[in-house]
Every structure is written in C-alpha cells, then in structure tokens.
C-alpha cells in the first residue's frame, strides 16, 4: 500500500521495511501493520491534538510531571511551545506506561520505540498470525468469563500497585490472543496518587470489566473489586500479592449522594462512548 506521510521518515531510516495494511483508525490514533525485517509489527500514529477527540484530556493529564517551571508555565499558558510539550507528554505517557506495566507483570504489547509521534510495537496475534480480536468481539462460556475476569482483576491490581490507572479501560481496549487478555491503548494513563479523578476512573475501569464479563457470568455483576482494591490502596495495604475476594462492606451509614450522581453520570457517558466505539468499529470493518 501507499506509505502514509507520517511513516515515510521511519521507512527512510530503515525502521520500517514495508507498510502492509491499515489496521484501524480511531479518535486518538491510526494504526498500521508493518514489516520490520523479519518481524510483523504495528505502527501507531498519534493524531495531533487539533484532530484528536479524546474527551477531557486535561483531566487525564492532571498529575503528570514536567521537568521545569518554564515547561509548566508554557503548558499553563497554552503557548505554541506549551502545546508541543503537551503533545510530547501525551505520546510518551503510553510508552512509559507500557514499559512500567510490562515490568510489573501485566500483559501489554512490547514496544520498540516512539519516533516523531509514531509508536512501533508488537502486533498482538494468534499462532496463525491473525490479528487478535478485541474483547468486545469475543464470546465465551461462563467458566471462561470467570477465569478471564480474574486475570483482568489481577492485572488491574498490578497496575494500581505500579501507580497507574488505565483511565479508558473497556472491551475496546483489551485484545484476546491464544494466551488470554492483553491490555492496550494507554496514552491517557492516569497517575493513581496525583489525580483528583483517579478513584472515579479506577472504578469505571474495573466496573467496565465487570459489566462485560458479567454478561457471560452474571454472578460477577455482584462483585465489588473496585471498592475493595481502592480501599486497600488508600490504606497502603495493596500489594501484588494481595488476595482479593471481590467483596466489600461500606462502613458509611448514609449514601454519598454526590458520589452516586457522579457514578450515574459516568455510566451514562460510558454508555454513549460505547455506542460511538461500536459505530466506529462497524465503519472500520
């Protein structure tokens, strides 16, 4: 196929030998299947901010550190330099998160460098070389759903122990290969300890997984892993070896109305975004 303009520099530098096909086009990035020597990989081209439609980007970036006061002021003033810096931070956030999570034992794609807004990484595929499907395209037995849900809760626990919250985790950001689920798409990864919305985003991530797997194993719909893990995290007692039960007793005597309303609002937004993702998937099919 014709080489996309953004990939031409990587071809010229010998990092990519052939662009095979377009894998997907999303709101934040375009992904292409490429050949690098003997290896088939994927190249993720991040869209510029003006073309990117990721909602509430500033909310996700809260708590991300910059090296100096000048950089922080430039970002705050939204100067040309500040916007360029924001773009670099947005792109590097995924590379950093993928590296940290791989070291923590979470199944994520292996990365091979980020050059000029293009991330080269592992193409998650089955033994026959076919691209692994999204979780949302997979059906399963109740037993398999319970098993894979437990794996996802373990990965999410490891992520939180590493101080990272996915922030946009759903059936559209998980691939399933022959060995099970693989978590993808982390440019919006949230700093668990420095973002005021961290708890709400964490709960949404966990409960999205509960909702999807619960369609196949309804017993999972009654679990409370989000509250259980977050309580342990706040107490400083969450470790990679923590045993989770999925049960949680709320000690508060009365409901926090504001929190309930926020959860309802978040659920409504998630449902709308899910519809948009399904529409985009159908258009890209």
Q: What sort of overall outline do the alpha carbons produce when their principal axes are compared?
A: globular
Terminal CA distance? 18 Å
Number of distinct beta strands: 9
Strand content: 15-25%
Q: Which percent range fits the helix content?
A: 40-55%
Mean pLDDT, all residues: 85
Q: Oligomeric form of this entry?
A: single chain
How are the strands of the largest sheet arranged?
Answer: 1-2-3-5-4
- The secondary structure category is alpha+beta
Low-confidence segments, given as residue ranges, are: none
Major sheet details: 5 strands, antiparallel
- The secondary-structure element order is HEEEHHHEEHEEEEHHH
Walk me through what this model shows:
This protein is of the alpha+beta class. 42% of the residues lie in helices and 16% in strands. It contains 8 helices and 9 strands. The strands form 3 sheets. It has a 5-stranded antiparallel sheet. The protein has a two-stranded antiparallel sheet with strand order 6-9. A hairpin with a 2-residue loop joins strand 7 (174-177) and strand 8 (180-183). Helix 3 crosses helix 4, helix 5 (142-161) packs antiparallel against helix 6 and helix 6 runs antiparallel to helix 7 (225-235). The longest helix has 28 residues, at 257-284. The relative contact order is 0.11. The mean pLDDT is 85.
